[in-house]
Amino acid sequence: MAKPQPPLALIGDIGGTNARFALVDPALARPEPQHARSLPTADYASLQHAAEHFLHTLDARPRRAAIAVASPGGHGEIHLTGRAWSFSRRELQQRLQLDELKVLNDFGAVARAVPLLCGADRVTLHGDPDAPLQGPVTVLGPGTGLGVALLVGSDALGWQAVETEGGHVSFAPQGDEERAIERWLAAHFGRASNERLLCGSGLSHIEAVLRGDDGAIPGRMPALRDPAEIVAAALEGHDLPARRTLARFCAVLGSVAGDAALIHGARSVMIAGGIAPRFVPFLRASAFRERFLAKGRFAAYLESVAIHVVTHPHPGLLGAAAALREVVAA
After folding, report:
1. Which of 134, 178, 224, 274 is most buried, by CB atoms within 10 Å?
2. What is the predicted pLDDT for the residue at 218?
3. Pairing status of strand 77-79 against strand 86-88
4. Which among 267, 250, 252, 253 has a CA at the least distance from the CA of 138?
């Protein structure tokens, strides 16, 4: 008689724009998300409703789950940073009728996925693409917000993800153009953080400054161009403001990635998120690496740091599955 298969578990990666769900067998050495689906968060009143809709479409009744959220994980009331959703981990577990629920930070999940990535899941900007992963690893990337995490350990000793809120540190402008962007952000938001630039809406903010909006009226947000339109126009090549915007975005990303690598003592940098994988050739040709290395006496240290862009379609889901394996093994 065939041994019955264990039920699949629910995994989720919840951002400010999309809620991604899948089912997975967490017992596999490299658990692959199955039936992955992305739901617009604006279409659902809560995380519970989005998860219930996904499970209903598959007639699935998982007993355990791991959910990555764009927020500190915590154990009490959890509030998403980029979406007006909040929930109690215990209540969500009860409503979804789960025996076990793990909630983790979304970039903590991406960091957990990094050791599971193969060569086809990333593009190398600098370094040997076939070299073994060397830690510590800085994991960061722009999406609806700016995620930052740290991965420490090794293949031999095991890896541990350190969840952070590093995307919210203060923006350090370089040159007149970036100082103008900083003033604009401070006028509209009271503070200029890295996340205000290095995210989808950040492209729109940068473009507004470059087209001449001086931000003179605090709280009055001008009409902003859609970030996807900016990227498409920049890559098409004939829209100079769009190309300047994307070039500035890449330059700032290089500075922030270099800062994070120094803070973490990183030997590798993984750039993830929903934005950078869309324009890897542009990123490679931009001032990203120049700004990454522009750290004075420590430029030589950063010369040896490998830099990769994660192209796996669902690293957050893969990392949530890895976190669920931690639960199973405990």
Report:
1. 178
2. 55
3. antiparallel
4. 267
Give the DSSP letter string of 264-318. HT-SEEEE-SSSGGGGHHHHHHSSHHHHHH--GGGHHHHHT-EEEEE--S-HHHH
Please state whether beta strands 158-163 and 268-271 pair in parallel, antiparallel, or not at all (unpaired): unpaired
CB count within 10 Å of CB 165 equals 17
Tokens coding 6:
């264990």
* Residue 84 main-chain phi, psi, to 5 deg: -75, 55
**Whether 141 contacts 271, CB under 8 Å:** yes
Q: Would you state the pLDDT for residue 237?
A: 87
Alpha helices in the chain (DSSP H): 47-58, 89-95, 106-113, 175-189, 194-197, 200-210, 227-236, 240-264, 280-285, 288-293, 299-303, 315-329
Could you tell me which residues come within 8 angstroms of residue 135 by beta carbon, excluding any fewer than 6 positions away?
151, 152, 153, 154, 159, 266, 267, 268
Place of tokens 């934005």: 275
Tokens of 213: 């909006």
What does the block give as tokens for 317? 């889901």
Mean pLDDT by 10 residues, the chain (330 residues): 66 89 88 91 90 94 92 70 77 92 91 93 94 94 92 92 93 96 93 95 95 63 88 94 97 98 97 94 97 96 96 93 69
DSSP SS3 for 77: strand
> d(Cα 166, Cα 157) in Å, to the nearest integer?
26
Encoded tokens for 316: 């957050």
Angle at 188 between CA 187 and CA 193, to 5 degrees: 90
Q: Which two tokens stand for residue 247?
A: 């070039």
Q: Provide the residue type at 237 as one letter.
A: G
321, burial (CB in 10 Å: exposed 0-12, middle 13-18, buried 19+): buried
